[in-house]
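REQUEST FORM: STRUCTURE PREDICTION
Request ID: SP-0412
Submitted by: Lab K.M.
Chain count: 1
Length (residues): 374
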Amino acid sequence: MKKFWKKDKNVIFFIFKAFTAWRLFLFLIEFLSKIIPLNRGYLGPVPWANLDGVHYLSIAENGYGIYQQAFFPFFPLIIKFLSFVSFNNYLISGLIITHLSFFIALYFFYKLVKLDYSEKTANWSVLFLIFFPTSFFFASVYTESLSLASIMVSFYFVRKSNFLLGSFLGGISSATRFVGILLLPSIIIEFCQKYKKRKLDRDNFPASILISIIIFSSSGLLLYIFYLWKMFGDPLLFIHSLSAFGVGRSGGEVILLPQVIFRYLKIFATVPFFTHNALIALLEFGLFFIFLFILVFNIKKIRLSYLIFGILAIMIPSLSGTLASIPRYLLIIFPVFIILGDLKSNLLKVSLLILSLVFLAVLTSYFLRGYFIA
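STATUS: Completed
RESULT:
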Protein backbone atom coordinates (compact mmCIF):
# COMPACT_ATOMS: atom_id res chain seq x y z
CA MET A 1 0.00 0.00 0.00
CA LYS A 2 2.86 2.35 0.89
CA LYS A 3 4.54 1.57 -2.42
CA PHE A 4 1.30 2.22 -4.30
CA TRP A 5 0.79 5.58 -2.54
CA LYS A 6 4.38 6.67 -3.22
CA LYS A 7 4.04 5.72 -6.89
CA ASP A 8 0.61 7.20 -7.57
CA LYS A 9 0.09 9.99 -5.03
CA ASN A 10 0.57 12.72 -7.65
CA VAL A 11 -2.02 11.07 -9.89
CA ILE A 12 -4.49 10.72 -7.01
CA PHE A 13 -3.96 14.36 -5.97
CA PHE A 14 -4.59 15.54 -9.53
CA ILE A 15 -7.74 13.41 -9.84
CA PHE A 16 -8.93 14.61 -6.43
CA LYS A 17 -8.44 18.28 -7.33
CA ALA A 18 -10.18 17.90 -10.69
CA PHE A 19 -13.01 15.89 -9.11
CA THR A 20 -13.47 18.45 -6.32
CA ALA A 21 -13.47 21.38 -8.77
CA TRP A 22 -16.05 19.59 -10.92
CA ARG A 23 -18.32 18.84 -7.95
CA LEU A 24 -18.10 22.40 -6.58
CA PHE A 25 -18.92 23.70 -10.05
CA LEU A 26 -22.03 21.50 -10.15
CA PHE A 27 -23.09 22.70 -6.69
CA LEU A 28 -22.80 26.30 -7.88
CA ILE A 29 -24.83 25.55 -11.01
CA GLU A 30 -27.46 23.78 -8.90
CA PHE A 31 -27.87 26.94 -6.83
CA LEU A 32 -28.01 29.24 -9.88
CA SER A 33 -30.36 26.94 -11.81
CA LYS A 34 -33.27 27.94 -9.60
CA ILE A 35 -33.87 30.94 -11.84
CA ILE A 36 -35.17 28.45 -14.46
CA PRO A 37 -38.86 27.51 -14.11
CA LEU A 38 -39.36 24.02 -12.74
CA ASN A 39 -40.74 21.45 -15.14
CA ARG A 40 -43.24 19.79 -12.83
CA GLY A 41 -43.74 16.87 -15.18
CA TYR A 42 -40.31 15.47 -14.33
CA LEU A 43 -39.82 12.38 -12.20
CA GLY A 44 -37.63 12.08 -9.17
CA PRO A 45 -37.46 12.74 -5.43
CA VAL A 46 -34.52 15.15 -5.90
CA PRO A 47 -32.91 16.77 -8.96
CA TRP A 48 -29.97 14.35 -8.97
CA ALA A 49 -32.31 11.35 -9.26
CA ASN A 50 -34.89 12.53 -11.76
CA LEU A 51 -36.05 10.78 -14.95
CA ASP A 52 -34.16 7.45 -15.20
CA GLY A 53 -32.91 7.84 -11.64
CA VAL A 54 -36.41 7.18 -10.32
CA HIS A 55 -36.51 3.82 -12.08
CA TYR A 56 -33.16 2.70 -10.67
CA LEU A 57 -34.25 3.59 -7.15
CA SER A 58 -37.60 1.89 -7.65
CA ILE A 59 -35.97 -1.32 -8.96
CA ALA A 60 -33.54 -1.33 -6.04
CA GLU A 61 -36.34 -1.01 -3.51
CA ASN A 62 -39.19 -2.96 -5.10
CA GLY A 63 -37.80 -5.06 -7.94
CA TYR A 64 -38.76 -4.73 -11.60
CA GLY A 65 -42.05 -3.09 -12.47
CA ILE A 66 -43.75 -2.83 -15.85
CA TYR A 67 -41.38 -1.83 -18.68
CA GLN A 68 -38.50 -1.27 -16.24
CA GLN A 69 -36.61 -4.21 -17.73
CA ALA A 70 -34.95 -1.69 -20.06
CA PHE A 71 -32.75 -0.83 -17.05
CA PHE A 72 -29.98 -3.36 -16.42
CA PRO A 73 -29.78 -4.95 -12.96
CA PHE A 74 -26.28 -4.49 -11.55
CA PHE A 75 -26.62 -0.84 -10.51
CA PRO A 76 -29.92 -1.26 -8.62
CA LEU A 77 -28.57 -4.47 -7.06
CA ILE A 78 -25.59 -2.75 -5.48
CA ILE A 79 -27.78 0.21 -4.46
CA LYS A 80 -29.88 -2.29 -2.52
CA PHE A 81 -26.81 -4.08 -1.17
CA LEU A 82 -25.23 -0.88 0.11
CA SER A 83 -28.45 0.62 1.43
CA PHE A 84 -27.64 -0.72 4.91
CA VAL A 85 -24.78 1.80 5.05
CA SER A 86 -27.26 4.64 4.47
CA PHE A 87 -29.91 3.25 6.84
CA ASN A 88 -32.12 2.08 3.94
CA ASN A 89 -31.85 5.43 2.17
CA TYR A 90 -31.61 4.22 -1.43
CA LEU A 91 -30.99 7.70 -2.76
CA ILE A 92 -27.89 8.25 -0.63
CA SER A 93 -26.69 4.75 -1.46
CA GLY A 94 -27.05 5.50 -5.19
CA LEU A 95 -25.20 8.81 -4.93
CA ILE A 96 -22.35 7.23 -2.96
CA ILE A 97 -21.96 4.57 -5.65
CA THR A 98 -21.98 7.05 -8.55
CA HIS A 99 -19.47 9.44 -7.01
CA LEU A 100 -17.09 6.70 -5.87
CA SER A 101 -17.37 4.94 -9.24
CA PHE A 102 -16.58 8.15 -11.10
CA PHE A 103 -13.46 8.78 -9.02
CA ILE A 104 -12.29 5.22 -9.74
CA ALA A 105 -13.09 5.68 -13.44
CA LEU A 106 -11.03 8.87 -13.61
CA TYR A 107 -8.07 7.23 -11.89
CA PHE A 108 -7.99 4.23 -14.25
CA PHE A 109 -8.68 6.42 -17.27
CA TYR A 110 -5.59 8.46 -16.35
CA LYS A 111 -3.55 5.26 -15.89
CA LEU A 112 -4.82 3.89 -19.20
CA VAL A 113 -3.86 7.05 -21.10
CA LYS A 114 -0.42 7.04 -19.47
CA LEU A 115 0.33 3.63 -20.97
CA ASP A 116 0.69 5.30 -24.39
CA TYR A 117 0.91 9.07 -23.84
CA SER A 118 2.59 11.72 -21.76
CA GLU A 119 1.46 13.00 -18.37
CA LYS A 120 0.30 16.22 -20.02
CA THR A 121 -1.97 14.33 -22.40
CA ALA A 122 -3.35 12.27 -19.51
CA ASN A 123 -4.12 15.44 -17.53
CA TRP A 124 -5.91 17.10 -20.42
CA SER A 125 -7.82 13.92 -21.30
CA VAL A 126 -9.18 13.74 -17.75
CA LEU A 127 -10.18 17.42 -17.86
CA PHE A 128 -12.02 17.01 -21.15
CA LEU A 129 -13.91 14.04 -19.75
CA ILE A 130 -14.76 15.51 -16.36
CA PHE A 131 -15.98 18.82 -17.79
CA PHE A 132 -17.80 17.40 -20.81
CA PRO A 133 -21.21 19.12 -21.22
CA THR A 134 -23.17 16.10 -19.95
CA SER A 135 -20.76 14.99 -17.20
CA PHE A 136 -23.39 15.93 -14.61
CA PHE A 137 -24.79 12.43 -15.23
CA PHE A 138 -21.74 11.10 -13.37
CA ALA A 139 -23.10 12.87 -10.27
CA SER A 140 -26.65 11.58 -10.77
CA VAL A 141 -28.36 8.30 -9.95
CA TYR A 142 -27.61 6.96 -13.42
CA THR A 143 -25.38 4.10 -14.58
CA GLU A 144 -22.84 6.35 -16.33
CA SER A 145 -20.29 6.37 -13.48
CA LEU A 146 -20.45 2.66 -12.78
CA SER A 147 -20.40 1.82 -16.48
CA LEU A 148 -17.38 4.02 -17.16
CA ALA A 149 -15.53 2.64 -14.12
CA SER A 150 -16.03 -0.99 -15.19
CA ILE A 151 -14.98 -0.17 -18.77
CA MET A 152 -11.84 1.71 -17.71
CA VAL A 153 -10.72 -0.89 -15.17
CA SER A 154 -11.42 -3.69 -17.65
CA PHE A 155 -9.37 -2.05 -20.39
CA TYR A 156 -6.55 -1.26 -17.97
CA PHE A 157 -6.16 -4.84 -16.77
CA VAL A 158 -6.50 -6.18 -20.32
CA ARG A 159 -3.70 -3.82 -21.40
CA LYS A 160 -1.66 -5.24 -18.51
CA SER A 161 -2.30 -8.73 -19.98
CA ASN A 162 -4.57 -9.77 -17.12
CA PHE A 163 -7.23 -10.96 -19.54
CA LEU A 164 -9.30 -13.01 -17.10
CA LEU A 165 -9.72 -10.18 -14.59
CA GLY A 166 -10.37 -7.73 -17.41
CA SER A 167 -13.00 -10.06 -18.85
CA PHE A 168 -14.65 -10.55 -15.46
CA LEU A 169 -14.95 -6.78 -15.13
CA GLY A 170 -16.32 -6.72 -18.66
CA GLY A 171 -19.01 -9.11 -17.46
CA ILE A 172 -19.90 -6.69 -14.68
CA SER A 173 -20.07 -3.92 -17.27
CA SER A 174 -22.45 -5.96 -19.44
CA ALA A 175 -24.73 -6.39 -16.40
CA THR A 176 -24.68 -2.62 -15.88
CA ARG A 177 -25.51 -1.45 -19.40
CA PHE A 178 -25.81 -3.18 -22.76
CA VAL A 179 -22.75 -1.26 -23.97
CA GLY A 180 -20.64 -3.43 -21.66
CA ILE A 181 -20.89 -6.37 -24.07
CA LEU A 182 -19.00 -4.26 -26.61
CA LEU A 183 -15.88 -4.82 -24.53
CA LEU A 184 -15.81 -8.42 -25.77
CA PRO A 185 -14.47 -7.78 -29.30
CA SER A 186 -11.95 -5.30 -27.92
CA ILE A 187 -10.64 -7.78 -25.34
CA ILE A 188 -10.38 -10.48 -28.03
CA ILE A 189 -8.42 -8.06 -30.25
CA GLU A 190 -5.99 -7.29 -27.41
CA PHE A 191 -5.62 -11.00 -26.64
CA CYS A 192 -4.93 -11.92 -30.28
CA GLN A 193 -2.43 -9.08 -30.64
CA LYS A 194 -0.63 -10.35 -27.54
CA TYR A 195 -0.67 -13.89 -28.95
CA LYS A 196 0.69 -12.69 -32.30
CA LYS A 197 3.40 -10.62 -30.61
CA ARG A 198 4.63 -13.66 -28.72
CA LYS A 199 4.71 -15.58 -32.03
CA LEU A 200 3.21 -18.70 -30.52
CA ASP A 201 2.47 -21.55 -32.91
CA ARG A 202 -1.06 -22.87 -33.34
CA ASP A 203 -0.42 -25.85 -31.08
CA ASN A 204 0.41 -23.51 -28.20
CA PHE A 205 -2.52 -21.15 -28.76
CA PRO A 206 -4.18 -20.68 -25.34
CA ALA A 207 -7.70 -21.51 -26.53
CA SER A 208 -8.92 -22.05 -22.97
CA ILE A 209 -8.13 -18.42 -22.11
CA LEU A 210 -9.97 -17.20 -25.21
CA ILE A 211 -13.03 -19.27 -24.26
CA SER A 212 -12.85 -17.88 -20.72
CA ILE A 213 -12.66 -14.34 -22.11
CA ILE A 214 -15.84 -14.90 -24.12
CA ILE A 215 -17.72 -16.47 -21.20
CA PHE A 216 -16.62 -13.94 -18.58
CA SER A 217 -17.14 -10.87 -20.76
CA SER A 218 -20.66 -11.85 -21.78
CA SER A 219 -21.70 -13.35 -18.43
CA GLY A 220 -23.54 -10.28 -17.13
CA LEU A 221 -25.68 -9.86 -20.24
CA LEU A 222 -26.32 -13.62 -20.55
CA LEU A 223 -27.43 -13.90 -16.93
CA TYR A 224 -29.81 -10.97 -17.38
CA ILE A 225 -31.22 -12.53 -20.57
CA PHE A 226 -31.75 -15.80 -18.70
CA TYR A 227 -33.47 -13.96 -15.84
CA LEU A 228 -35.83 -12.14 -18.24
CA TRP A 229 -36.66 -15.41 -19.97
CA LYS A 230 -37.44 -17.23 -16.71
CA MET A 231 -39.34 -14.37 -15.05
CA PHE A 232 -41.12 -12.72 -17.98
CA GLY A 233 -40.89 -15.18 -20.86
CA ASP A 234 -39.03 -12.70 -23.10
CA PRO A 235 -35.22 -12.90 -23.07
CA LEU A 236 -34.97 -9.64 -25.05
CA LEU A 237 -37.42 -7.67 -22.94
CA PHE A 238 -34.69 -5.10 -22.21
CA ILE A 239 -34.92 -4.19 -25.92
CA HIS A 240 -38.65 -4.65 -26.43
CA SER A 241 -39.52 -2.36 -23.51
CA LEU A 242 -37.51 0.59 -24.86
CA SER A 243 -40.39 1.96 -26.92
CA ALA A 244 -42.42 2.50 -23.73
CA PHE A 245 -40.09 5.38 -22.80
CA GLY A 246 -40.85 7.44 -25.89
CA VAL A 247 -38.20 9.58 -27.62
CA GLY A 248 -38.76 7.54 -30.78
CA ARG A 249 -36.94 4.32 -29.89
CA SER A 250 -38.07 1.35 -31.98
CA GLY A 251 -38.07 -1.32 -29.28
CA GLY A 252 -36.53 -4.00 -31.46
CA GLU A 253 -36.74 -2.99 -35.12
CA VAL A 254 -33.35 -2.11 -36.60
CA ILE A 255 -33.35 1.33 -38.23
CA LEU A 256 -30.34 2.34 -40.31
CA LEU A 257 -28.48 5.62 -39.97
CA PRO A 258 -29.79 7.23 -43.22
CA GLN A 259 -33.34 6.87 -41.89
CA VAL A 260 -32.26 8.41 -38.58
CA ILE A 261 -30.64 11.34 -40.39
CA PHE A 262 -33.81 11.88 -42.43
CA ARG A 263 -35.85 11.92 -39.25
CA TYR A 264 -33.66 14.63 -37.73
CA LEU A 265 -33.72 16.72 -40.88
CA LYS A 266 -37.50 16.53 -40.69
CA ILE A 267 -37.38 17.71 -37.05
CA PHE A 268 -35.19 20.68 -38.00
CA ALA A 269 -37.56 21.57 -40.85
CA THR A 270 -40.81 21.34 -38.89
CA VAL A 271 -40.13 22.12 -35.21
CA PRO A 272 -39.69 25.80 -34.24
CA PHE A 273 -35.96 26.32 -33.78
CA PHE A 274 -35.78 28.03 -30.40
CA THR A 275 -37.76 25.37 -28.56
CA HIS A 276 -36.40 22.83 -26.10
CA ASN A 277 -37.13 19.83 -28.33
CA ALA A 278 -35.47 21.39 -31.37
CA LEU A 279 -32.36 22.43 -29.47
CA ILE A 280 -31.98 19.00 -27.84
CA ALA A 281 -32.36 17.37 -31.26
CA LEU A 282 -29.61 19.67 -32.58
CA LEU A 283 -27.40 18.73 -29.60
CA GLU A 284 -27.96 15.01 -30.24
CA PHE A 285 -27.33 15.31 -33.98
CA GLY A 286 -24.30 17.58 -33.62
CA LEU A 287 -22.49 15.63 -30.90
CA PHE A 288 -23.11 12.31 -32.64
CA PHE A 289 -21.41 13.42 -35.84
CA ILE A 290 -18.64 15.35 -34.05
CA PHE A 291 -17.64 12.22 -32.12
CA LEU A 292 -18.00 10.00 -35.18
CA PHE A 293 -15.86 12.43 -37.21
CA ILE A 294 -13.14 12.51 -34.53
CA LEU A 295 -12.99 8.72 -34.43
CA VAL A 296 -12.88 8.29 -38.21
CA PHE A 297 -10.52 11.21 -38.86
CA ASN A 298 -8.05 9.87 -36.27
CA ILE A 299 -8.45 6.21 -37.19
CA LYS A 300 -4.68 5.70 -37.51
CA LYS A 301 -3.96 7.35 -34.16
CA ILE A 302 -6.38 5.32 -32.06
CA ARG A 303 -5.49 1.88 -30.73
CA LEU A 304 -7.50 -0.75 -32.62
CA SER A 305 -9.32 -2.14 -29.56
CA TYR A 306 -10.28 1.40 -28.47
CA LEU A 307 -11.44 2.27 -31.99
CA ILE A 308 -13.65 -0.82 -32.32
CA PHE A 309 -15.22 -0.15 -28.93
CA GLY A 310 -15.78 3.52 -29.75
CA ILE A 311 -17.34 2.91 -33.17
CA LEU A 312 -19.66 0.18 -31.86
CA ALA A 313 -20.63 2.20 -28.79
CA ILE A 314 -21.59 5.22 -30.88
CA MET A 315 -23.31 3.38 -33.75
CA ILE A 316 -25.38 0.71 -31.99
CA PRO A 317 -27.66 3.16 -30.11
CA SER A 318 -28.53 4.79 -33.45
CA LEU A 319 -30.03 1.48 -34.66
CA SER A 320 -33.01 2.13 -32.38
CA GLY A 321 -34.11 4.86 -34.78
CA THR A 322 -33.11 7.87 -32.73
CA LEU A 323 -30.09 9.70 -31.34
CA ALA A 324 -31.96 10.46 -28.12
CA SER A 325 -29.66 10.14 -25.08
CA ILE A 326 -26.58 10.18 -27.34
CA PRO A 327 -25.13 13.20 -25.45
CA ARG A 328 -25.12 10.94 -22.38
CA TYR A 329 -24.02 7.76 -24.16
CA LEU A 330 -20.96 9.56 -25.53
CA LEU A 331 -19.51 9.84 -22.03
CA ILE A 332 -17.99 6.37 -22.33
CA ILE A 333 -16.39 6.98 -25.77
CA PHE A 334 -13.05 7.53 -24.05
CA PRO A 335 -10.82 7.47 -27.20
CA VAL A 336 -12.30 10.83 -28.22
CA PHE A 337 -11.23 12.41 -24.94
CA ILE A 338 -7.72 11.03 -25.45
CA ILE A 339 -7.57 12.56 -28.93
CA LEU A 340 -8.70 15.92 -27.52
CA GLY A 341 -6.17 15.66 -24.69
CA ASP A 342 -3.38 15.02 -27.19
CA LEU A 343 -4.07 18.12 -29.29
CA LYS A 344 -0.87 20.12 -29.81
CA SER A 345 -2.36 23.60 -29.46
CA ASN A 346 -2.80 24.71 -25.85
CA LEU A 347 -4.93 27.62 -27.03
CA LEU A 348 -7.30 25.25 -28.81
CA LYS A 349 -7.53 22.98 -25.78
CA VAL A 350 -8.25 25.87 -23.42
CA SER A 351 -10.87 27.26 -25.82
CA LEU A 352 -12.59 23.87 -26.12
CA LEU A 353 -12.55 23.42 -22.34
CA ILE A 354 -14.13 26.84 -21.75
CA LEU A 355 -16.80 26.08 -24.37
CA SER A 356 -17.44 22.74 -22.70
CA LEU A 357 -17.84 24.42 -19.30
CA VAL A 358 -20.42 26.83 -20.71
CA PHE A 359 -22.48 23.98 -22.13
CA LEU A 360 -22.04 22.00 -18.91
CA ALA A 361 -23.48 24.89 -16.92
CA VAL A 362 -26.49 25.31 -19.23
CA LEU A 363 -27.33 21.61 -19.61
CA THR A 364 -26.88 20.88 -15.90
CA SER A 365 -29.22 23.75 -15.04
CA TYR A 366 -32.01 22.45 -17.25
CA PHE A 367 -31.52 18.85 -16.15
CA LEU A 368 -31.80 19.82 -12.51
CA ARG A 369 -35.01 21.69 -13.22
CA GLY A 370 -36.62 18.61 -14.72
CA TYR A 371 -35.99 19.00 -18.46
CA PHE A 372 -34.95 16.04 -20.60
CA ILE A 373 -31.38 16.43 -21.82
CA ALA A 374 -30.25 12.89 -22.67
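NOTES: The chain has a mean pLDDT of 92.
Reviewed by: T.R.
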